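DM between two lab members

TW: hey, do you still have the NAC domain-containing protein 26 entry open?
JB: yeah, one sec
JB: this one, 143 aa:
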Amino acid sequence: MPPAYRAHEELVDYYLRKKVASRRIDLNVIKDVDLYKIEPWDLQDKCRLGGPGEEEQNEWYFFSHKDKKYPTGTRTNRATAAGFWKATGRDKPIYANKQRQLVGMRKTLVYYKGRAPNGHKSDWIMHEYRLETNENGPPQARS
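TW: and the structure you got?
JB:
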């Protein structure tokens, strides 16, 4: 199994599932962040692992709640004070175990400075993970 496959599965099926269920996570390595009140270039200070003087990181992990664009709608508000996160491509499924049980989805987003539709694309990329469950029970198995 490729390492990235395992990492996605672990992020969703271990960390995210425990966080959503308000269960304790053994290592407190994933911070809570209000993603829409912080710019991507400020994430490093909020989500840094280790102390000052340690090697600079180029990947950070954090929990954030989705913010609805409209109170009664389903669209997600991904705007910050200086720009917005735009979804790119299709959501990718994340499977667990050899039975290929669907446990979550991964969405790729790119940060644009300014306001839609005239924002300027940046080099900031984020992967958003979410749990995927059947409304009538446990996660679905897929082949």
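TW: got it. The mean pLDDT is 81. The two ends are 16 Å apart (CA to CA).
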